[in-house]
Amino acid sequence: MTSAPTILATCKQTRFHLLDDNPSAEIDVEGLGITVTSSSPGSTDDGSKTKAKGKSKAKAQGRELISDGHLRLKAGIHYGLLGRNGTGKSTLLRAMAEKLIPGIPHATRITILQQTDGEYTAGGTDGLSMDKGVLESIRNEAARTADFLSKSFESEDPLQPVQAIRKIRHQHAQKKLFLAQKNASLKSGARGLQARKDLKAAESNLESSFALLDQDQENIDADAVQSDTQAAVEMLQAVQSQLEDMKLADTEKEARRILLGLGFKEDALEKKVSTLSGGWRMRCMLASVLIQNPDIMILDEPTNFLDLLGVVWLENYLQQFSESSQTTIILVSHDRDFVNSVCEEIVVLRDQKLNYFKGNLAAYEQNFEEQKLYWGRMKEAQERQISHLEASIRENMKIGKKTGDENKLRQAKSRQKKVDDRMGLQVSANGGRFKLNRDLVGYHLTARAEIEVPQDEKGATMSLPDATELRFPGPLVSLEGITFQYKKNDRVILDDVNLVMHIGDRVGIMGLNGSGKSTLVRVLTGSNIPSKGKVITHPRLKVGYYGQHSVEELQERGKNEPSLTALGLLMAEVEGTLNEGALRGLLSSMGLAGRIASDVPVNKLSGGQLVRLALARIVWNAPQLLILDEITTHLDFHTVTALATALSSFNGAILLVSHDRFLVRSKRDMEHKLDEEFEGLEEEEADESTTRRRSVYVLKAGKMSEQQNGVEQFEKSLVKRVQKMLQ
């Protein structure tokens, strides 16, 4: 039987870390290693004892994600964590939140919002109370404990307070056991002996608390009832006193402000959490994390399911948060503009190492390009120098051997030594001139390190097939005076909407949740029939439609057909129109190459891979119009960039519904920059068939209006609203 994956975290200081009762928002852990194992670290297949321990054993059993890394976080700094899918970002964040890394003090308060298998979880908040109202569920641990104990005393059953205090004690015993296990694994010698004694005591304490919790109510004697009831009273008084010091009224006011900022309406604050959809539950979890004021806050893709107003509000809230709090924030997001606005430093997880950069994302990318240019030129210059030296060595050797000239041979030998040992880095770590006797550290080193040119991330590529040519010109789709309402007396969703799209056009649709964006898409695709107006399409039009729930549909199909692969799915859908080789080529161009396409079941693919598969499903027949509705939800940062590049080179028309400002902006602005490099642009623009219109529209109250200044115009209007909300 295969056990669940286990995270094994180690570091250089493992043996010397003590239980630390002082919380800290600063972390400095050297020699960090994180491995995901398929079984418990202590188990072996054959039961034999080996000398392999710790890191070497972990490597044999599982997959190493970080090796000899340096985790360094400063108090109050907002970090953006970058790294491709599969590099270990989520595992690192989980190891931090669960304090599996030995160098993180146990008393440090860490909260986390994390996405796993499409579902969000909030750690460090004891989860959401599903049977409570939205506002009531967004409370800290002390408030929940007080509420739990208070309700036990309101019950007519005198044993309810007893069960409540025993449940709380059992939870405390579980936490103490975790700390004792961790402490025992870190210490050796006399301290290790004491730690193991403490571990046995913690295990015994947990067994006792479990026995009391599981005890039949009929067997609880009067003395135990009186003792536990008194303990519950004392704990309730202590927690209520703590809440008074925390100013509970202010906390509830802040919770209300956060929920309203994240998009909740006033009348929705009393709804039970259990009645909410996944997206709104995610907002509740985000609010429960924001309200905690921890030492370290981890936010993994917090903008998913937020509209642009919510994203802008969260941006501004976190910016204000940095001015009033010393909380350290670690942020993972595919939203480039969001990372740019919130993060002060960048952490890059790549090649099993953590690299740091002071500055936001834009500064990091500019620096990366400058470093590529700088080291690339240095390497090219050195290669020319080496080529010249090698030519002179060959010439001197030839002349020396022919004439017996020892000077020529010595000169050739000296130059060969220079090529072998003196080429490579010409600058020291401090930026000065490299000196062998000072900068070549280590007796085993005899030559300088080679010049390494920073390389772009591999694998984050995507390309789309060209659109099928139309036999005769004309608009692809035309909406004329479209009005839509589900029932006659219902509110109008779309009100006199007009839109014309030609081949090559780029149109971005933005708007807040509930503004009618998805309804407009369904009208365009023919799923909804307009109440008034006409939808006219080109007779030969082929549409590729990516819906908001495309990934969820694939996940559901993967569950129902466990053996279904990406290649098998496409072969069934194309019905022989394309052969296996063509489909493999298509999937490869989407980033699903080789065995991933043919051997990995759909239900085992990541969210980003499912997006690529969903795209392949809609472009295999080379459509002229792509309609993409919130396509970035499951993508990582690098894949969004690759998607933007792929869409920019697509020769068909694109209608993009998204709150990702970078992606919408790239469709409007990127190709203007590219067009400026072409000669004869004016002549091309005179030809109607090659004209590309780039427009951004905003839907509000059923009306669709074009934004003359694109995304920035809409964003500025939202910033004004947010500033009023945050006052």
From TrEMBL:
Q: Which residues form the ABC transporter domain?
A: 50-376, 477-726
Which GO molecular function annotation, any one, does this entry have? Answer: ATP hydrolysis activity
Tell me where on the tree of life, at the top rank, the source sits.
Answer: Eukaryota
Q: Where in the cell is it found?
A: Membrane
Has the keyword ATP-binding been applied to this entry? yes
Q: Which UniProt keywords apply?
A: ATP-binding, Nucleotide-binding, Repeat
Is-annotated flag, keyword Acetylation? no
Task: Extract the ranges annotated as region (Disordered).
Answer: 34-60
- Kindly state one GO CC term assigned in the UniProt record: membrane
InterPro entries per the UniProt record, alphabetical: AAA+_ATPase (IPR003593), ABC_tran_Xtn (IPR032781), ABC_transporter-like_ATP-bd (IPR003439), ABC_transporter-like_CS (IPR017871), ABCF (IPR050611), P-loop_NTPase (IPR027417)
Q: Which SUPFAM superfamilies has this protein been placed in?
A: P-loop containing nucleoside triphosphate hydrolases (SSF52540)
Task: Please note every region of biased composition (Basic residues).
Answer: 50-60
Q: SMART domains from the entry? A: AAA (SM00382)
The record gives the membrane topology as: Multi-pass membrane protein
A Pfam family hit: ABC_tran
What the entry lists under PANTHER family is as follows:
ATP-BINDING TRANSPORT PROTEIN-RELATED, ATPASE, PUTATIVE (AFU_ORTHOLOGUE AFUA_1G16440)-RELATED
Q: What is this protein called?
A: ABC transporter domain-containing protein
* Lineage of origin: Eukaryota, Fungi, Dikarya, Ascomycota, Pezizomycotina
